[in-house]
Structure prediction request, 738 residues.
Amino acid sequence: MSNVRQIASKAGVSIATVSRSLNNHPNVDPATRQRVFEAAASVGYSKANSLRTGASTVIALAYAGDVVRADYGGFESAMLAGILRGVNERRFDVCVLSLHRDLAPGESYARLLDRKKIAGTILRVFEDSRHVAEQLAGTGLPSVVVADRYAPTSGVNYICCESRIDSRRAVQHLIDLGHRRIALGVHSVRDTDHVDRRNGYEDALRENAIPLDHSLVSEIVASPEGGAGLITRLMSSSEPPTAVYFTDPMATIGALRRCLELGIRVPQDLSIVGFDDSDTRRHTFPSFTAVVQDAEMLGFEAARWLTRRLANPGDGALQTLQVARQTRLEINQTTGRPPKEMCRVLPDGTRVLVSGPQLVPGFVQDQGK
Amino acid sequence: MSNVRQIASKAGVSIATVSRSLNNHPNVDPATRQRVFEAAASVGYSKANSLRTGASTVIALAYAGDVVRADYGGFESAMLAGILRGVNERRFDVCVLSLHRDLAPGESYARLLDRKKIAGTILRVFEDSRHVAEQLAGTGLPSVVVADRYAPTSGVNYICCESRIDSRRAVQHLIDLGHRRIALGVHSVRDTDHVDRRNGYEDALRENAIPLDHSLVSEIVASPEGGAGLITRLMSSSEPPTAVYFTDPMATIGALRRCLELGIRVPQDLSIVGFDDSDTRRHTFPSFTAVVQDAEMLGFEAARWLTRRLANPGDGALQTLQVARQTRLEINQTTGRPPKEMCRVLPDGTRVLVSGPQLVPGFVQDQGK
DNA sequence: CTGATACATTGAAACTGTTCCATCTGTTCC
DNA sequence: GGAACAGATGGAACAGTTTCAATGTATCAG
Prediction:
């Protein structure tokens, strides 16, 4: 195994300087630090795996950007619960990190994690930080991305939940019920998951020769306020939809609440398909039809794989993990036939019957038989 | 500062044996390990504070028992979010631990945390594990309990939220509206928080000379199912209450949902006061009147105090933290006057008018004027 | 009972990484 | 021009962990 003395001789400095460089102490010449970094990389140095100082048994739940608040009904808290369960088998501990908070100038993510004696990482990446996973994949530090996916050749390990197919099925379910004006409320962050759901929505429309109406597609904040605001806006518009697909649980909760507030009956006046990461769909009234992914399971499997891999470095079967689970579509009480008579509902709750031309006749009544 | 050599000479063993003992390696004679533990305690040894190996900058969120799942709408996830925000000032990291999982036979909690190089802990204790905080308080390891309280003389640091006064005010609010048959759905775990809320309920009844009716007090699981089940049971009983106070958010959510399901109008048929740790009360319909504590703030303040204390060991002002914040009572849309005519609502939703003798005449109609 | 074997226990020594302290160097300020 | 200072560095001391060999003890076949 490599050690600081090897790095020192390779970089032509003392071991004290190596230690200072690797730990980002002040008063090290940037050029020297750079040389040390390169030497450390060339000998494959890792503090976490160092034999004499005790192998680390801590894995990180690392956020490529800021730590995302483990929010109510949210993906993060369910996933963390799964991770905490998943590390028990091998008795690893979990440390929650924000990668950018402590990153020193010129330091790589792998070195930051090594400095913190992290043996492996479960990584959460976002639209603008996908590259972090690719950087980490090239290093000796085992890591796995949760809820995003990469090319098989990228070398990035991941476990995600494919939601495009069930998003298509969800919209198809609405179409089968007779809906034609189907709106989409999609999270404004364009990560893989939400792009999948948008694609699934578009797939279903295309397959049924329903033209995509851009006025029915809205990027919203994944929060109750986002969902509620979209309901208000859509239902007061001159030509409201008869169904909406929300791609995240919090927006769905807010939408259902606003419907109750405005007296919009679900599903009699408006059908709603939501998205669920855990059990949220069963806690609303009515229980909402949802594309469901199991965030707890994703966290559990990521943590179990990572800790098994760390415990058995030689096991070839554990070298890579590139898995896409499937979501499932659960039909509950918020989807039904479109209304016979279309109503606008103004923000104050007054209902305005939408007359002739704005309705799409044939469809609504015929398909709903 | 003390080191393994001091311990070795004190215990009459080699430093290798000290190291093995402190790290719970197998093949150490239990009697020897015991001697080493005692010697380590007598010289006040701490690995996390050891100068030459670098002071640890990791604090633990330690659960005295199992890690509690950071659940939907729950206290844990909001608190964790606060902790993660609170450590940023001093750039500490957070490790989530279950104290009992890795505790070796004969090992103290302080030594376990030291073995994991934890500089300080934020502790979650429960009814049967309050003693863990007292054990830790006697050691050199800084710790703070969140959401429970101890005697000032115990030496245990804590930050909690006092909910008895606002629980009393919440029930008083119901009484002021004219309610007399007020039920209580309290979490079956008898931690300080829930005992407070139960006491507040009893305080209000006593002050208003309303006899405590044990059939109206139920210990339930703090879950939507618990809340829903209680609504079904209470409302189908021969003499239903006109108001219920639920002492946790998830039970409140479930109760509101069941009311919508059974056609129980809130607050026209039944008033509900709930409890909220974050923003849940605003995500239901109707928004529920609640005793509100800010779990995120508790986590934030605990983490900020702990990390400041670790960064400034000499600062006398940071030596102890024994703080009780106040909850607040937020009146929303689920509390109103009691109904003029009392109805039982059977589990299938049928309504049965409750006639004469079972009503408490004078009260319901007179007070509601 | 005896000898062989296995295993638990232990200490000395080797080893890894961190920090203290002295030194050297270049810069700034009178 | 020299004193004062700060940045950068290496040697040495140090803290803690693990390897390896030695020792003692239990077990078991004959």
